[in-house]
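Researcher: Following up on the earlier apo prediction. This time include the ligand. It's flavin-adenine dinucleotide, with the SMILES given after the sequence.
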Amino acid sequence: MEEQTVVLIVGAGPAGLATAACLTKLSIPHVIVEREDSSASLWRNRAYDRLKLHLAKEFCELPHMSYPADAPTYIPKISRKCWFSVARDVATSVVVRYTTRFLIVASGENSAANIPVIPGLHDFAGEAIHSSRFKSGAVYSGKNVLVVGCGNSGMEIACDLASHGANTSIVVRSPVHVMIKEIIRLGMTLVQHIPVNVVDDLLVRLANFVFGDLSRHGIVRPKTGPLQLKAETGRSAVIDVGTVGLIKKGIIKVLGNISRIKGSIVEFENGRESAFDVIVFATGYKSTANTWLKNGESMLNNAGLPKQEFPNHWKGANGLYCAWLVLPWMPRISPVASCLATMHKCDVPDKMN
Ligand SMILES: Cc1cc2nc3c(=O)[nH]c(=O)nc-3n(C[C@H](O)[C@H](O)[C@H](O)COP(=O)(O)OP(=O)(O)OC[C@H]3O[C@@H](n4cnc5c(N)ncnc54)[C@H](O)[C@@H]3O)c2cc1C
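Model: Understood. Below is the ligand-bound prediction.
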């Protein structure tokens, strides 16, 4: 079956939906294709139950749809007050070939689970899952669980596991900034007016005051400040949800890097060995755009991410765009709106005629 549209958007996550909203406002015809059976599938299907937005709501709004004034500052994944979307079920076996002038990559930087290569992992005797399949620690009560990765997902999953009575350990391989959400919110607000190094210095002082020296618990701060680090590498500060207190009490054990796995035994680089029933890999995600997009090299690198840095990352050649969230401490979604406004101004109306 053949169909034509002006703009084809690949991915119905927040970026794809935001793009569609902007195009609707501009009366530009478009179609969204989505590989899963719902919109915002990362949030609906691949996030743990207790998840709340890590950033305050004012930094996470979609264009043309502000959060209601009475919405919580940190929006929970599961809320009794929520938006509904009603969609037609298109689950048929019909293959549609779209012809489109403009193609927008909105398939996300979290499109596939990233699990490191570890010798012996395939023969691990217990259960090994990626954080995208973890829902709640309730089913792991009494089990020996190792969480690999100390980003926001890993630290929160470790807290959830320990709170549900799992004997929990976490692998902390690299330096990490641990913060509280109020400090990050303050930083994101201040950095709009004050140089980032000054703001970072303040944030680190505040966090040290809150947490004290965590190095004796195996958690070391990076030399670069939290907002600068995010800008340079994309690595976010960890927002503590109670994990640090459990680490200080010895309820969650901090372990170093894994060297290999033998049956149910995990060996660490420092020579330590421990048996685990479950390993949860909170080791991040990767883009899959390069697997479905052919000739996308004008815009994407080998990892399926934009070649150019913000604010020049969003446009490739021949009508190729990305609604992509590779921003530093800036609001992650709202720049989609400005990209689309620019696209409208520069390109689309001319070429539509
Ligand atoms: C645990 C966790 C916590 C987070 N917390 C925050 C936060 O507090 N604040 C924040 O701003 N961000 C947060 N993020 C970042 C998150 O990436 C964004 O919030 C947002 O989901 C990104 O939107 P997106 O539309 O770019 O990508 P996604 O939400 O990943 O959506 C991409 C969509 O494209 C679809 N897709 C992929 N490939 C194809 C294909 N070939 N064909 C068709 N469809 C395809 C996917 O199924 C998916 O529905 C968090 C992420 C995680 C994992």
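Model: Confidence is low (pLDDT under 50) at residues 81-89, 327-335, 349-353.
Researcher: Noted. I'll compare it with the apo version next.
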